[in-house]
Specification:
Blueprint lengths: L1 E9 L3 H5 L6 H7 L3 E8 L8 E8 L2 E14 L3 E10 L3 E13 L2 E12 L4 H6 L4 H22 L1
Antiparallel strand pairs: 1-7, 2-3, 3-4, 4-5, 5-6, 6-7
InterPro entries: Polyketide_cyclase/dehydratase, START-like_dom_sf
Pfam family, one: Polyketide_cyc2
Protein name: Polyketide cyclase / dehydrase and lipid transport
């Protein structure tokens, strides 16, 4: 299994950043523009255990998978969302978004991801992968949140 993680400070209130992880397609697409579908297909009655059908497309390649919410925490100064899914039948992926309130207008955002190949020969490929996608993602969340917040305040 390979793990990646990155942390960045976002200059907006914690609730403002948290809205991007509310499971709505509109908010999800702002930080993950390749997502084409994100809809609830099974409700557990709580957030944990909910299952969503998600589809994304990059170029000609389109993937569909089921995303299961594994952990959901929504406190005033700390928010956490962990989900898992299997990509293309060959990788088990788990991702966590952690938001921590620094002050009224600053939030620390940590994104962690793990990737476990289901086939032994893919383990070699994953050894050579880097954390660039994780770094790009945390930067995109920061940019989108700060730009949206400035527009809403200005």
């Amino acid at each position: 299994m390979k793990r990646w993680s990155d942390t960045i400070d976002v200059n907006v209130p914690i609730e403002y950043v948290w809205k991007y992880f509310d499971q709505s397609l509109e908010q999800t697409r702002k930080i993950m523009p390749n997502i084409e579908e994100h809809r609830l297909i099974h409700s557990s009655g709580e957030r944990v255990g909910n299952v969503y059908r998600q589809a994304y497309q990059v170029g000609e390649r389109k993937e569909e998978y089921e995303v299961t919410i594994m952990e959901h925490e929504d406190e005033d100064s700390r928010k956490k969302l962990t989900y898992s899914y299997t990509l293309a039948g060959v990788y088990d992926i788990q991702a966590t978004y952690l938001l921590e309130k620094i002050d009224e207008y600053k939030t620390r955002f940590t994104y962690s991801s793990s990737n476990r190949p289901r086939r032994w020969y893919l383990r070699v490929l994953i050894l050579f992968s880097n954390d660039q996608a994780v770094t790009n993602f945390v930067r995109r969340v920061k940019r989108v949140a700060e730009e949206d917040y400035q527009k809403s305040e200005g």
